[in-house]
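Message: Study each token:
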Amino acid sequence: MADITLSQAHKILQAAVKKAEEIDTAMDIAIVDSGANLKAFLRMDNAWLGSIDIAIKKAKTARFFDMPTGEIGKLSQPGCPLYNIEHSNSGLISFPGGLPLVVNGEIIGAIGVSGSSVENDHAVAEAGAAEIG
């Protein structure tokens, strides 16, 4: 199983911070490895304290299920197959801002971003993921 390197994690963080600065928002950005262990974390100045945990959980959720957290959110609505999944695994996050990190078709980790609207969180996560994808 391939795993994200520290160098890759730093490049992802830099790209995510650049996007956050472009949209003028402070973010908490977490990178986990292929085993869903925290590899790198960055809290921008003035980013919400409550978003630290959310960013980490978004990254873990994306890696645990190898899909964007927003997709898990769609599947976890009442009457859907993953209803209440957010209560598993010591708490998951099922709204946008978490993405698997894929290189050459292999998932090497995930990014989780929190600190603004879910649209902004997702945009910053996408910018980070695109750095190596």
In short: The longest helix spans residues 6-22. The chain has a mean pLDDT of 94.
